[in-house]
Amino acid sequence: MTETKDFSNIVDECPDDIDVEKLIKDFGCKPFTEDIIKRIELITGKKVPSILAHGLISHRYFDELLTDYEKGVRFYLYTGRGPSSPNLHLGHLLPFLITRELQKLFDVKLVIQITDDEKFLKRDLTLEQIRQYTEQNIKQIRALGFDESKTLIFNDFAMTPTMYLNIIKVQSGVTVNHSMASFGVKSSDSIGKVAFPATQIMPCLPSSFPEFFTEIEQKTLRCLVPCGIDQDPYFRIAKDILHKLGVARPVLLHTTFVLLHTTFVPSTLGVRTKMSSSRPDSAIFLDETEQTLKKKIQKSFSGGRDTAEEHKRLGGRPDIDVAFRLIQLFNTEPATTAQIREQYASGQMLTGQIKKLACEYVWNVLQSCKSGI
Ligand code: TRP
What we know:
disordered N terminus, binds tryptophan, two-stranded antiparallel sheet, seven-stranded mixed β-sheet
């Protein structure tokens, strides 16, 4: 379990073993609850898809956004990707898939920032590598099927003068101390790292995109950011500076980490290992074959019992079962998921069957994500 109280370096050295509950508490976020789902259904008149119901852990000010929405204040979505590897994995895909569903639910505009500049500053990659990853990542992201007429994808190296202007406005309102403390930047680091947060905050200002938003939208839209909780510090420091610039604070939705390996200590939620490109065995990639996918899911943590006899007698434990979690996220029919849960928990269904189903659902998602590439 992560013992550190100080999460200042979470952005660039996000620990693999994450105690999510502790992080939510330390960061002062609110859990994403059943009540919020009901509220969204009431407001939109639509069913909230499983990936949203099970893929979000916490939020900042989302209740405020919904209250504003009921009063007629609209919002846009903003999310992003740092192009540090050629292929996205399921952990990267989840926030994008969630964003896609939110775009469908609320029928709103979406801005996607590709932070090629960030990866040049923080990773040992050449500009040429980053250019290739950026191109490939954008292709993969586009293929996910966002509403094209309402989606803007841009990379920082190709930003417009208006975006740059807003970056400078943000930079002028953030001190070196604040940036260093919030992101664990050391004085021996490059000045680029200290300044970078302004670049990731910039898309929270709708006026950065005058070709994309109407004049009224630029003045009135709120910004909703679905992202991993490791990105939270950017948006926490955004609050004050945006206030000074007369812009509403961004609203955050934190996505769950998709796990393959996890060990659950009885009665606590224990240690979880998030998917990481640097440990290919821990992650399911877009270009996985059916065979390699099966192997990875086969090795995932199971809530089944040691013997078939014991399993039938005591039943499986869906809530700590990685394969079941994958089914929950990626099966689009909640009724079948409920049936699977019941049959697994009662011991009728065995671990092997759960893993086989998880493979099918994840394979379908990977196929659909690749179909437009
Ligand atoms: N910094 C993020 C990364 O390294 C990329 C990013 C930019 C982002 N803007 C964002 C992520 C907004 C989530 C939301 O991947």
